[in-house]
Amino acid sequence: MANQEDLARLMTLEQGKPLTESRGGIAYAATFLEWFGEEASRLYGDMIPGHQVDKRLMVLKQPIGER
């Protein structure tokens, strides 16, 4: 990770944690950010082109009520 050391130093200065613990916290947080960032490619629905070039529409199929 490119900025891990800088972020760890900032966390240590702000929170008073040991630098080693801050490095671990940054690496741990990065795994969550990576996972959620990749969720965009796993959208559950149909993507259809919008009326404008910079817009997209998504159709989600969800149940209404109970049977």
Automatic annotation (TrEMBL):
**What GO terms in the biological process aspect are recorded for it?**
gamma-aminobutyric acid catabolic process
Tell me which Pfam families the record gives. Aldedh
Identify the residues that the record assigns to the Aldehyde dehydrogenase domain, covering every copy: 2-65
Gene Ontology MF: a single term? succinate-semialdehyde dehydrogenase (NAD+) activity
Tell me the domain of life.
Bacteria
Any coiled-coil ranges, and where?
A: none
Database matches in InterPro entries? Ald_DH/histidinol_DH (IPR016161), Ald_DH_N (IPR016162), Aldehyde_DH_dom (IPR015590), Aldehyde_DH_Superfamily (IPR050740)
Q: Which SUPFAM superfamilies match?
A: ALDH-like
Q: Which GO terms describe its cellular component?
A: cytosol
For this UniProt record, the keywords arranged alphabetically read as follows: Oxidoreductase
Family stated for the protein in its record: Belongs to the aldehyde dehydrogenase family.
Protein name per UniProt: Aldehyde dehydrogenase domain-containing protein
Supply the source organism for this entry: Pseudomonas fluorescens HK44
Q: What is the lineage of its organism?
A: Bacteria, Pseudomonadati, Pseudomonadota, Gammaproteobacteria, Pseudomonadales
